[in-house]
Amino acid sequence: MHPKEGWHDGKPPIPGVSRRGFLRRGAGAGAALLGAGGASSLLAACSSELLADTGHRALPLPRPNNPVTWPIYADNKPIPSGMQAERNATLKIYNWVAYVNPKCLKDFGKKYNCNVEVTTFNTMTEALAKLSSGKVNFDVFMGVTNDVIGKTVAQKLIQPLNHSYIPNIGQNWREYTSPFYDQRWQYTVPYTIYTTGISWRKDHIPDDPGSWPNGYAFPWQSKYAGKVAILDDYRESPSLALMKNGIYDLNTTDPKQITLARESLLELARLTDVHIDNNDYTNIPTGQMWIHHSWSGDMAASWQYLPKGVPADVIGYWFPSDGKGPTANDTLTVLRGAQNPVLAHLFLNYLQDLPNALTNISYNGYMQPVYGVTPARLVHEGILPKTLISTVVLEENFKNGLWELQLPIQTDLAWQQAWQVVSLGI
Amino acid sequence: MTSTATTTAAPATSAAPAKAGLPWPRRNPWRHPWFLEGFTWLYLIWSLVPIALAVLFSFNNGKSQSVWQGFSWRWYFTDPVNSVAHNSVLQLAILQTVKLSAYTTLIAVPLGVTFALGIHRWRTRTSASFNFVMLLSFVIPELIFGVAMFFVFTSLFRPVGLGTLAETLALVTWNVSWPAIIVQARLATIGDSYSEAAADLGCTPFQTMRRVMLPLLFPAIFASAILIFSSVIDDFVIVDLLSNSAANTPMSVYIYSQQHGGNGGPALNALGTIMLLMSFIIAILGYVGYRAMTRGERGSTTDTLTTIAGA
Amino acid sequence: MAMPTVLRFGGNRRNGDRKNADRPPQNKIFFILLAAPGIIWLALLFIVPFYDVFAIAGGRLNFLTESPVPVYNPLHWSHATLVTTWHDIFGVGSFALPIIWRTVWYTAVAAALCVLIGYPAAYFVARFAGRRKALFLVLLIAPFWISYMMRMLAWIDLLQTNGYINKVLGSIGLPGDINWLGGKWYTVVLGLVYGYIPYLILVLYAGLDRIDGSLLEAGRDLGLGRTRTFIKVTLPLSRQPILTGMLITVLPMLGDYFTNTLLSGTRGTAMIGNVIQGQLATNGFQGEGAVLSLLLLVVLVAPMIYYVRATAKSAREAS
């Protein structure tokens, strides 16, 4: 395949063509080339004007049928075994807003005689931008979505784990001892499992996404203008639009489909003046929003944010009954620059322990793939109201579910570009 | 357009001749403009009552920022996890705000004052252009300035990185024009006669500076310090772009990111209230201090008030 | 965020230059040394950073980290990011142009409202508050000392669907279910007005307070009514403060992103500041953020210079 085929006009890229010029010209064929393993030839075709770093090879793309073992680099090795936890330390955690029970942090601090300090971010994009801007000294990076693990490994942002500190991995579902996105869990342990569906206020909306032929089309209703919100995430929201259009390959590299997703989202904005935020867990219970594109875990915790006197059953969460919807798990990682790597490992271990996991879920809502975290138990312990049982994630969900996974870098930028046009930085 | 409100303030005055028929007495031009006063009160209510309510909600005995559920100290002391007294991240935010204000004031004031003193007497094309740059740094939109700072600390000055050092350096640059401008203004009013007299009496320039100019300039320097301290407390854009961890996130950024992330709640109001108290304490200190320093000079309460607010 | 009126004194006063020329040269060195730290600081941390923005805007992209790679030699600058951004604004299917127009009209409406609300209040306090002037002034300046974030928080609390604004509206028979925070342009504009009006009021007050009372009395003695005195005397004299005041509210409004995010959160109200901030926080798009902020700077350089010049000029006239 000749790299020139990537350029619509048949001309080589002008010197200094930008990333996006590059995308516009070459997205289709470029993506195809990359898919066919031709990444290096395509990249080589780009002048050095375009790429500051032409030396690297394309990252492997983990898929359930293509498990990936990440390399361990000579200058980024796991810490040695048998070290003592750092003393008088402050364990620094980088995490989503409201994504870990503060009580767990306090208890951990007491147990290991350290301070715990959480810094929060609002989107994965923002987190990666801050991390790669250099000079951060967090120990633990929490809630890393599995589509970015390859990037963080290749950029050497995170360090490989020393398994001897994390015996509680055994409490996790068995497949998580060697997930396809990180074979032999070299860099990650699982944190939460969740699905992405639609939440709605049953007291304001008589309709039910479950009664629709395609529940993912539920937000496209102009009569609820001003009361509809989608997630602020460059993968989730375009995926929603893809599924609305009946496309279930959420890792598509087809520029036509990306454009279609973008146009659908713009239409949604026109129809409903759609809100863009990750606050489904508060906006639905407070009634600020009536329909929210949602993460199951957020909705599982949402009843705690209901105003006094409003019953929990006004909140609904829909996920397709055949399981054909986004299913994912977030991970816990230790950053390469960790000042307290031992404590960081111990913290990862701590959260895998069933009692701590339950404490965490009681605040966080998100289930963890820890044996013993069962729907019956969550309901029994009053952590989850029966009416929100649809937020539960089971092992079989991972067999039927759709995964949003790492994309070839050009496609990734095309998705981000599409999302920029929709979200405008809001 | 500007005149509409005021025209209505005295509608009859201009319209009087036209209203023949009715014996419309020409109004006393010195009468009190009740309409204007009413309007001003309305404005003040609009501008202050929401803040009073926000302060009130920091004492809410519930998670809501909008539904009152009774008075409590919960968000300040009693809540074992989320109160200001027990959530170390909130304390870090307060500490960081104080730190940044102090560092910035300590660096920017001497820097700006010496700049003003030097520029005032060294008048060349070079100095004039730097004075112009100084003034530009004063009026440039903060976002544009912040973008430049973000880039320089993540590329050219990458060793600095994001964090407290970057925040301080940027805030100093952003605020250094306060003392530079205020002191230049003061120098202009003082005139050159004092320093010339001192020089004639055989003072070296250094002595003149120390013994004559600095005491004369002290109120201006003090006012600029107060202004810098309080404007750093209020600053958002620069620190939002340059902070990267809880340890270097000041209150304004913390409030924004939590509210944006849906994790709002009365604890944020409590934090905001603490911020407000800090600013007011600074303002009162500034007022009292400035009054004490300018004793004997002409000037009134109102002049002092506007001076410490930067007008 | 605050920008004061003290500039009215500042500027390059040229008179008196001759005297300095007579001074012995070592004095000159003393003053150069005095100014040097400030000059070096400005050069390193104001001029160099802006050069760095150009270097990023003309630079390349590291495909592994998706972060920008600055190019410091202007001869090697690439115009590609500029071209892309240009297409974003003016190209087919551009998304940025509507946002620019929206930014302009939100800012214009907000600034006009600031003046319409701020002027009468400042005018009253400056001219008619009498013995209560200090009290009024304290109240007028108070928001100036209250953090912007706290003031936004106050409105977020009030504007919730179950908040007090809706309750009050409902109780007087108006629709009490307005979704204020659901992407309403008027919420954003009012937020901007509320956020920036203290700065304007301060400038207006200072300007109006400086107007010589005897001019007004003269006007009245000559038989002008209050309104005509206002139109003939006060208004022309307050043109300068109004202009300065508008500039110091307009300039930061154009770079505002937080008001929008907090009070709306929909793309329908996004302003140019949101786009720039969003690009800055997204790996791979920081170059475009650089270009966009430079373009904004180019547009604003003229008013900025005007502001500096005008205030310097009025300072010369005053002294």
Structure explained in plain terms:
Chain A is an alpha/beta fold and 426 residues long. Helices cover 32% and strands 14% of the residues of chain A. Chain A has 14 helices and 10 strands. In chain A, strands 1, 2, 3, 4, 5, 6, 7, 8, 9 and 10 form a 10-stranded mixed sheet that branches. In chain A, helix 3 links the parallel strand 1 and strand 2. Chain A is globular. The N terminus of chain A is likely disordered. With 311 residues, chain B is mostly helical. Chain B has 2 domains: 70 residues, no CATH class; 221 residues, MetI-like fold (Orthogonal Bundle). The longest helix of chain B has 34 residues. Chain B is globular and about 70 Å long. Chain C is mainly alpha-helical. Chain C contains 14 helices and 2 strands; from the N terminus they run H-H-E-E-H-H-H-H-H-H-H-H-H-H-H-H. Chain C has a two-stranded antiparallel sheet. The N terminus of chain C is likely disordered. Chains in contact: A-B, A-C, B-C. At the A-B interface, strand 1, helix 3, strand 2 and helix 8 of A face helix 5 and helix 13 of B.
Number of helices of chain C: 14
Q: What portion of the residues of chain C fall into strands of 2 or more residues?
A: under 5%
> What can be said about the biggest beta sheet of chain B?
none
Helix and strand string of chain C, N-terminal first?
HHEEHHHHHHHHHHHH
User: What would you say the CATH architecture of the domain at 95-281 in chain C is?
Assistant: Orthogonal Bundle
Distance between the termini of chain C: 28 Å
CATH architecture field of the largest domain in chain B: Orthogonal Bundle
| Widest sheet, order of strands of chain C | 1-2
Radius of gyration of CA atoms of chain B, rounded to a whole number: 25 Å
The tally of structural domains of chain B comes to 2
Order of helices and strands of chain B: HHHHHHHHHHHHHHH
Q: How much helicity do the residues of chain C have?
A: 55-70%
Structural class of chain B: mainly alpha
**Share of residues in helices of chain B:** over 70%
Distance between the termini of chain B: 25 Å
The SS-based structural class of chain C is: mainly alpha
The largest pleated sheet of chain C is described as: 2 strands, antiparallel
Q: Of all protein chain pairs, which has the greatest interface, and how many residues does each chain bring to it?
A: B-C, 123 and 133 residues
Global morphology of chain B: globular
Q: Which quaternary structure do these chains form? A: heterotrimer
In the CATH scheme, the class of the largest domain in chain B would be: Mainly Alpha
